[in-house]
## 1
Amino acid sequence: MSQSQTAVIIPAAGSGQRLGVGIPKALVEIAALTLIERAAQNLSPIAANIVIAAPPGFEENFRSIFSQAHLSAQVVVVTGGATRSQSVANALAALPVTTKYVVIHDAARAFAPTNLAELVIAQLEAGERAVVPALDVIDTIKVVDERGYVINTPDRNSLRAVQTPQGFTRDAISAAHASGADATDDAALVALLGIPVRVIPGSALARKITTLDDLTWAQELAVRQ
Ligand code: CTP
Ligand code: MG
């Protein structure tokens, strides 16, 4: 079992502008559990360590939440950065030397099931260096220019909507972040190095809580669970 050599990084330092509830999104409660607690709870079974990037100024708040959370994984809180990539880079610097596999998971995808992370790890154990869950795209996607005109229409069959948890060997993810480059997910940085990124089926439960509609979805899900 790779659990003892696996660390989870949870970027949770965003402000939640699009949700617009006035507190950092990771601290929003759904059925009495904050998003960050739920995300950590769901991924704790696969890892020995969890490193959380908190919004600057909220580190102690996060530490106090996790001092009472009783997770099997050891939790460390670091200060997040101005971008998601910077938050992940800050967390990478805090990984124990024993870490072989790194699973990176958005706090905003708090309902992603443990089992999805297990499927990601299984691919790493089978020799992949980068693994991402993704769903087929339902809408037709257009590439549009800055004046609002369509440039082209990529074939929908080749498009995927990518989620987290994303899994990497420690070497791959460290190399990807060494340059300080920025992207909306970690797999994009790894792919820039020419490392193959394996895509596996994602989960509707890994939906990113971004808007008030997503919050309503999450509240209904939490009641049913
Ligand atoms: N994130 C982070 N550090 C940042 C920005 C984002 O750790 N500087 C994290 C968020 O906390 C979230 C994940 O990256 O768990 C995905 O980001 P997103 O859903 O965009 O969250 P926010 O940036 O908080 O939301 P918004 O873009 O609406 O402000
Ligand atoms: Mg954001």
Note: Residues 11-19, 25-26, 53, 80-84, 87, 106-108, 208, 210 surround cytidine-5'-triphosphate (ligand 1) (CB under 6 Å).
## 2
Amino acid sequence: MAITDQQVERYARHILLPEIGGTGQAKLLKSSVLVVGGGGLGAPVIQYLAAAGVGTIGIIDDDEVDLSNLQRQVIHTTDRVGMKKVESARQSVAALNPDVTVNALDYRLTADNAQEIITQYDIVADGCDNFATRFLINDTCHLIGKTLVSGAILRFDGQLITFKTHARKSQGKDEETGYPCYRCLYPAPPPPDMVPTCAEAGVLGALCGIIGSLQAAEVVKELIGAGDSLAGSLLIFDGLRSDFRKVRIKPDPACRLCGEEATINDLSGIY
Ligand code: ZN
């Protein structure tokens, strides 16, 4: 795909970067990303991916814009309260960058549709707000070999990690090791009501921008193959202390999904 003069101007600050350049920008324009959730994390992820010229962005969310969303979900606007979030996000992206096609998926990701949907995209960004969907996305991405950049936020705290169980990293000499999946970190969803949601416990609006922007940056890096992947590294942000920590996460040989004797081989009957 040849980049037009207008695109050279629009993406000039990307094209200047040796890690992106014209080749990387052309790659972004041909790329597709599925963003799960058009809310707190989804908003900055979608906006930065759209601004970056990611050619196709799928947004899946069955929710509508609520007045209480607007404190942090900056892709939506006051006059769109009551509108489907995917439609509101589509309108914002259309106003920002005509190079981007939005697939507005106005329903929930389920065990029945996850594989069919996720397989159509190059990479997945998870910004969903519940554990069942989080595990479903992780399991699907592992089973079909898709890279997943996963963000989570609550109160003043955020986390970010990339899951890439289909990739291998060199350990020096001829040794190779794999990367963990979400179940290596958290084997199963917590009991209902044990972990509060943002709706119950609150969340700092700007925290969504911090973690969501990092998530968008990691997605772009994965798409163009720049820098170090966050695969196997959990980035933890403590917003009250303004402190970032990075924790190495190893694959769990006993993991039910990606371990040596995995028992989860398909998506039926788990969610
Ligand atoms: Zn695992």
Note: The first strand starts at residue 32 and ends at 36.
